[in-house]
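task queued by scheduler; priority normal; single chain, no ligands, no partner chains; default sampling; output format set to structure tokens
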Amino acid sequence: MSKPKLIVILGPTACGKSSLGVALARRFGGEIVSADSRQVYRGLDLGTGKITPEEMEGVPHHLLDVAEPGEQYSVARFQAEAYEAIDGILGRGKLPFLVGGTGLYLRAVGEGYVFHGAGPDPALRAELEELPTQALRDRLTAAGVELDEDCFANRPRLVRLIEKLENGEDPHAEEAKNPRYEVLNLGVAYPRETVLERIDARLQARIDAGMVEEVARLRERVDDGFLEGLGLEYRYTTWFLQGKFTYDQYFDELSRSIKRFAKRQVSWFKKDKDVHWLNMAENPVAEGIQLISAFLET
């Protein structure tokens, strides 16, 4: 029996996933499920680049603003709620789109990870995303986990080993999977220099729109540890508000951190062999329509 079909739009930060998702969902009468580990939180808007109601252009979006700041939100919970949202979309006769840049969330749904325990908290996920590969190795070896040649340089595999270790699972146990959907993966990316320029322009726009003020308001509701654990915009803005940086230092350090993160995202997603990478400099909407149309006909 054939599985229901799911469109996944993935890629590094600042590459236009949200707008492409809206354009394609409008074309096919679909609905979008967000796969972003920070956009699940209410009030984390500018710092996460959360899509606005106007930008949605009437396309229903799911799994935005489903948790309170400070609340633990695990990958296992995301998977369960994403399954519910996707099945609801399918039940309405619509095409589901899973759109985001949190690789573990995308794989948990697309590949159907079988979880045996509670997932890690947001602070752990953010920490793993920002750590260099050698630090991931050190974390595992310090816990007595032996690394073979296959995973030594495989960053996604190292991250998953830590996730399993934190869940109380055997890190080297075979990953259990039970995929529920037939998936078409569409990747978005720009040349490296273009991404760097887009990151700086977007960061400045977010600051101008009130990102620092957003974090200041959040500090009145949750402790700094939670915000620092979210990484990137929330970590560095919290440090700026604590007086650790001048404004120029704040912008430069945060910009560098986001760029390093984008580079790691590219490495993560390039491990997937079944991603159709769209040419964002040409006409990615037309290319995406062609690929989705062919996928739906099979």
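post-processing summary
- Residues 247-270 form the longest helix (24 residues).
- The domain at 5-192+263-297 is CATH 3.40.50.300 (Rossmann fold).
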